[in-house]
């Protein structure tokens, strides 16, 4: 299973279309979660371009004012979809993986940058995650760092990181370690600020089901946010070890019973 979480930062640039289309074809993406789309709806032709013409089903969430907006899409040959839930800061799909019949909640979030909305965002995250019996994958732009080293300067306030970490611990979630780069966002000022605002969290049940899951940070050349590529890297579907027998083993002590049947 592979998918992307990305703060898309608007649909004005056709380079982003091509990037997503090429990535979908190259990585065979099973889901696409985009935030900060800035649009209430999308022509079907646009959605087809994003997923390279694959059979995706989409849910769009309108922005509030000039900011926000989200879309989440899944490949129908990979997943069955049950319920769709939309909150103020999230879209949640209840899905079943067709290959192994595994059911879980796929949640895409877009946390507010404004300080006055962050407590509401965290409360909503607790509500949607704590009520679910199914395993959870929740990812996107949380707009909160967790530690001082997730920022490249000393302008650090512990209030929201403390609350964010408390929420993660209370929900028994774990962050999948990101590789590829250290930060996921940068501003456009001369003295740039870099922060890790985007991440993927999973529950322990999903981690046990897919223990080889990885999150890789892709290029940030066409957006101020880095796309995050999630892959479960399930070895059962990619590689099956083969049994091999060496004739030299017959010469070792303890293989007398084998020699009787092969003589």
Q: How is the secondary structure organized here?
A:
Blueprint: E1 2-7, H1 14-27, E2 31-35, H2 44-50, E3 56-61, E4 70-75, E5 79-86, E6 90-97, E7 102-110, H3 115-130, E8 136-141, H4 159-170, E9 173-175, E10 178-179, E11 185-186, E12 194-195, E13 198-203, H5 204-209, E14 214-217, E15 228-231, H6 235-238, H7 256-262
Parallel strand pairs: 1-2, 7-8, 10-14
Antiparallel strand pairs: 1-15, 2-4, 3-4, 5-6, 6-7, 8-13, 9-13, 11-12, 14-15
Give the SSE string.
Answer: EHEHEEEEEHEHEEEEEHEEHH
Total individual domains: 1
Output the number of helix runs: 7
- Could you name the ranges where pLDDT drops below 50 across 5 or more consecutive residues? 235-246, 257-263
CATH fold type: Deoxyribonuclease I, Chain A
Q: What's the Cα radius of gyration?
A: 22 Å
Strand runs, count? 15
Biggest sheet features: 7 strands, mixed
Q: Which secondary-structure class do the elements indicate?
A: alpha+beta
Shape: globular
Placed side by side, the strands forming the largest sheet appear as 3-4-2-1-15-14-10
Level-2 CATH architecture: 4-Layer Sandwich
| CATH C-level class | Alpha Beta
Mean residue pLDDT: 87
Name given to the CATH homologous superfamily: Endonuclease/exonuclease/phosphatase
> What share of residues are in beta strands?
25-35%
From the N-terminal CA to the C-terminal CA, the straight-line distance is 49 Å
Into which percent range does the helicity of residues fall? 25-40%
